[in-house]
Amino acid sequence: MNEKQRLDNQQANSSDKKSAKDYSKYFTQVITAPSLKDAKKRGKEEVQYHNDFTIPEEFKGMGEGRKFYIRTYGCQMNEHDTEVMAGIFLALGYEPTDRTEDANVILLNTCAIRENAENKVFGELGHLKALKMEKPDLLLGVCGCMSQEESVVNKILKTYQQVDMIFGTHNIHRLPQILNEAYLSKEMVIEVWSKEGDVIENLPKERRGKIKAWVNIMYGCDKFCTYCIVPYTRGKERSRRPEEIIQEVRHLAAQGYKEITLLGQNVNAYGKDFEDIKYGLGDLMDEIRKIDIPRIRFTTSHPRDFDDHLIEVLAKGGNLMDHIHLPVQSGSTEVLKIMARKYTREQYLELVRKIKAAIPNVSLTTDIIVGYPNETDEQFEETLSLYREVSYEIAYTFIYSPREGTPAAKMEDNVPMEVKKERLQRLNNLVNELSAEAMKKYEGQIVEVLVDGESKNNPDVLAGYTTKNKLVNFKGPKTAIGNIVKVKINEAKTWSLNGEMVEEIEPAEVK
Ligand code: SF4
Question: By C-alpha distance, which of 367, 507, 366, 504 is closest to 448?
C-alpha cells in the first residue's frame, strides 16, 4: 500500500472525518485529560474484563513501510508495557528500529516515580525537537506514568509543541486508534483516562528476550503511600484472573522460557479484588510452581499484604526462587506511619522472622527512602539498626524527592539537603559493607546460574544470575546461553561474582 492509499484508507474508515479546525470540538467530546482529583476518587464500579482485543480491520497495514522506536524509562511494569506496545506496532505492520533517526513513530514510555526521571524525559523531548523539524511526518508520543499527571500534560501542551500524542497507562490497548488520530490531526492528540482502567486480555506482546519473561498478574495500587504517585498514575488494584495467568505461564514454558517474573505494583494484594473467589498470591504461586518452568520470581512486595500462606508456599522451594525483595522504606515506626505504609517496625521484623524461619537460605533485599520530611537523627538511626538486624544483601536507597500531587509533597520539611545526603552516604556505606560480606560467602561455592548472554563489558565472558539474583561473570561456551549451568565462584566483588563453569546441567531448548 502506498502513502496515498494508506491515507485514503484511513480517511475512509475514520468514524470522524474532522478537519484541523473542528478538532477542539472532538477533543472535548471524546478525549479526556488526566485529573488527579478524579484519580483519587476510587470508583466502586466493577473492573471489566475484556478478552476480545483485536486490531480493527481498517488499521491493519497502517504501519507498512514505517518504523517505530520506543524508549522505556522506569520499572519492569513499563518494560512490559513496552513489549505490549511493540506487539501492537508489529500487528499494525510497523517494523522496529533502534535508531531514532530511522523511526516514523517515536514513543517515550515514561516514569513518574522521581523528578529526576521526569527531567530526563523533558530533556529527551528537547533533543527530539530537531529531528521533528527535519522530519515533520515523524509522530512523537509520550505515554506511561508521566502522561497520567495533569501538570505534565499541561507542561507538554505549553512547552513541547513537537509532541503529537500523549496517552495514559490505561489507554495502551487504544494505540491503533490513537496513532490513526495523530496521523489525521494537526493538533496534539491526548487520550488519558483517569478512570480506573479495566483488565484487557489477548494483547499482543513482542517479548524482548527468549530466556526470561514478565507476566503481569495485577495492575494498579490501593496503598496510597504518602510519597507515591503510582496509585494515581496506575489506577486501582485490578487482578487478572488466575486461569489467564496460568495459561500465559504455560505458554511461556512451552516456548522454552527459563524464568518468569510475576509483576504488579503490590503483588501481595493479588486477588483481593475478586468478589467471587477467595484466591491470593499464595494460591497462584502454588499453582504456577507445578508448571515445568525452572525459575519463578515475583515483584514488588508490600510487607502489609505478605501473608502466611504465601510464606508456606514459598518454603516449598523448587522453582520458587529463594530471593524476596521486601521494601521497608524506613526502620522507624513513626516515619512509616507518616509514609502510610500501614505496618510498624516490629510487624516488619516479625514478618522477616517468619520468612527466615520458613526459608532459612532466603536472600532479602529492600528499598529505603532517607530524609523523609522531618525525619530525625534518631529515626534515621532506627533505619540503620533495622538494616543490620535484617541483614539485607542489597538495598536500593534514595533521598526523598517530592512528587507533585502526593500528600507528602505538601508536608513541611525541616531536613536540610546536606543532612539528607550525609544520611544517604552513611546508609550506603552500611549497604556496601553487608553486600560485600554476603558476596564473600559465595567464594568457593558452586552456584546455579541462568546464563543471559555475553557480559556487557567483555564479550569473551558470559553473564547470568543465581537463584538469589546475584550477577555472575564467568568463562564458558556460548552454547551455555539460555541454560542453567553450575559455576564455581572464585572471586566476590561488591555487586557481582566471578567464577568458572564446572558443568552444564541441561540442554539448550530456547526456541
Ligand atoms: S505500595 Fe506504596 S510505594 Fe508501592 S506502588 Fe503502592 S503506593 Fe506506591
Answer: 504
> What is the per-residue pLDDT for 505?
58
Cα–Cα dist 322/341, whole Å = 25
Question: By three-state DSSP, how is residue 190 classified?
Answer: strand
Pocket test for ligand 1, best of 302, 306, 336 (most atoms within 8 A of CB): 302
In angstroms, what is the span from residue 306 Cα to ligand 1's centroid? 14
Pocket residue to mutate for ligand 1, from 148, 227, 230, most atoms within 8 A of Cβ:
230
Walk along the chain (511 residues) in steps of 10 and give the mean pLDDT of each run: 41 35 33 61 71 88 96 93 96 96 97 88 95 95 92 92 93 94 90 77 90 95 91 89 96 97 96 94 98 96 96 97 97 98 98 98 97 96 98 96 89 94 98 95 96 92 97 94 96 94 62 38
Cα 344 to Cα 333: distance, rounded to the nearest angstrom: 5
CA–centroid distance, 93 to ligand 1, in Å, is: 37
Ligand 1 centroid to residue 354 C-alpha, Å: 23
Ligand 1 pocket test, pick from 111, 218, 223 with the greatest ligand atom count within 8 Å of Cβ, gives 223
Nearest atom within ligand 1 for CA of residue 229: 8
Task: Give Cα 345 distance to the centre of its chain.
Answer: 27
pLDDT of residue 151: 86
Per-residue pLDDT at 113: 84
Structure letter (DSSP) for residue 402: -
| The predicted structure's pLDDT at residue 404 | 83
Q: Which residues form the pocket of ligand 1, taking CB atoms under 6 Å from any ligand atom?
A: 221, 223-225, 228, 230-231, 265-266, 302
* Confidence at residue 1, expressed as pLDDT on a 0 to 100 scale: 40
Check residue 3 and report its DSSP letter.
H
How far is residue 308's CA from residue 290's CA, in Å, rounded to a whole number? 20
| Type of residue found at 113 | I
| Beta-carbon count within 10 A of 478 CB | 11
- How many angstroms is it from 265 CA to the middle of ligand 1? 7
Please give the order of strands across the beta sheet that includes 189-191. Answer: 95-96, 67-72, 105-110, 139-144, 165-167, 189-191
The burial of 418, by beta-carbon neighbours within 10 Å (0-12 exposed, 13-18 middle, 19 or more buried), is given as exposed
Is the bond into 233 cis (omega within 30 degrees of 0)? no
Which helix (DSSP H) or strand (DSSP E) does residue 133 occupy?
helix 115-134
| Domains of the chain by start residue, with CATH | 3-191 (3.40.50.12160), 446-505 (2.40.50.140)
CA–centroid distance, 440 to ligand 1, in Å, is 33
Minimum CA distance residue for ligand 1 atom 2: 225
Amino acid letter for position 320:
L
pTM over 0.85: yes
Is residue 143 part of an annotated ligand binding site?
A: no
